[in-house]
Amino acid sequence: MRARWWQWTYDYRGPRIIATDRQAPRVYPRMIPLCSRFDSVLFTPKMSAIASYGNFSRYPIMTVANFLGIGIDALTYGDMFDRIDKWLKTKNGRSHHIACINAYCVTLAMKDERLTKIYNGADIVGADGVPFVWWIRKILKEKCDRLAAPDILLQLAQRARKTGYSFYLYGGAPDVVANMKKNLEQTFPYIKIVGSMAPPFRPLTEEEDRKITNEINYLQPDIVCVGLGTPKQDYWIEDHLYKIQGAVLIASGATFDFFGGRVRMAPEFIRKSGFEWLYRLVGKDFRRVWKRYTVMNVLFLWNFAMQLTGLRLRKPERWTRPERQLTF
């Protein structure tokens, strides 16, 4: 069988040849300890941001790129739809988490171990940033779509004509979520938005949280869009994966602002160019996003350069969440 281009690798033991596709898998428990099986691993000084492994028990072989300790899946929309359809066959199990990862998420996670664990434990860790997609396509030579929350929602809304997906919107300001619901229903007349909620901008009491959870479980939506901002929405999803039954929870961030009409979405050609961040930076949200797109981006680029040169490496510890919550 023809050898892949990453057959040669290098680490602290020096250059060597690693196993290719279907040969006996070579396991590196210290490199990515919470993954059970690997088909191949590429780890070189020039390309140390890449790790390829696969053969999970639930999914076909996948490729994962390591961006500063966050393992991002190389997935297409077709792959994502297959998983969602499989998850939604039963409404009695736990919910599933789709995380959309960009440079801001990765930089925040560098100083937040809980956030790192949340991202690496998500059921889908999608490449939100265009540079991430480029890296996976050009370096890993794998098919990968940009899994940004606004695009995911639009794709699911279009697919709902055939599948009958139902939606619940959780997040945003009251007027924003109301406008978002109205705009989606006008654009997709067949869409079923079974409920929406704009939570207060403060921590919820246990009674308030229980009431919201009971409402979502009663309505039984297939897709729950959570727009509380990063990282608040990620914490909320983590806390509710076992409380909410049989849904797919998507960290939706600015999707509420875009579809709710508060912020204008960048034109398609700008989004594909990788300069959507610049479009938002010079827009009406400047005061809210300037630090995110200047300081945080610089921190990401610096640390990513350190990883590429081998001077600093955070290893992705991907893990699979059990279907039932463990109690001790």
Labels describing this entry:
disordered N terminus; Rossmann fold; alpha/beta; 328 residues; 11 strands; single chain
Would you write up a description of this structure?
The chain starts with 7 loop residues before the first strand and ends in a 20-residue tail after the last helix. The protein has 328 residues and is an alpha/beta fold. Among the domains are: 77-132 and 147-275, 3-Layer(aba) Sandwich (Rossmann fold), CATH 3.40.50; 276-308, no CATH class. The strands form 3 sheets. Strands 7-6-11-10-8-9 form a 6-stranded parallel sheet, with helices on both faces. Mean pLDDT is 81; it is low at 1-61. The chain is built from 13 helices and 11 strands. Helix 2 (103-110) packs across helix 3 and helix 12 packs parallel to helix 13. Strand 1 and strand 2 (14-17) form a beta hairpin.
Summarize the structure.
Helices cover 39% and strands 15% of the residues. With 328 residues, it is α/β, with parallel strands linked by helices.
Record the SSE blueprint:
Layout: E1 8-11, E2 14-17, E3 50-51, E4 64-67, E5 70-73, H1 77-87, E6 96-101, H2 103-110, H3 113-120, E7 124-127, H4 130-138, H5 149-163, E8 166-171, H6 174-187, E9 192-197, H7 206-219, E10 223-227, H8 232-240, E11 248-251, H9 255-259, H10 268-273, H11 276-281, H12 286-293, H13 295-308
Parallel strand pairs: 6-7, 6-11, 8-9, 8-10, 10-11
Antiparallel strand pairs: 1-2, 3-4, 4-5
Helix pairs in contact: 2-3, 2-13, 12-13
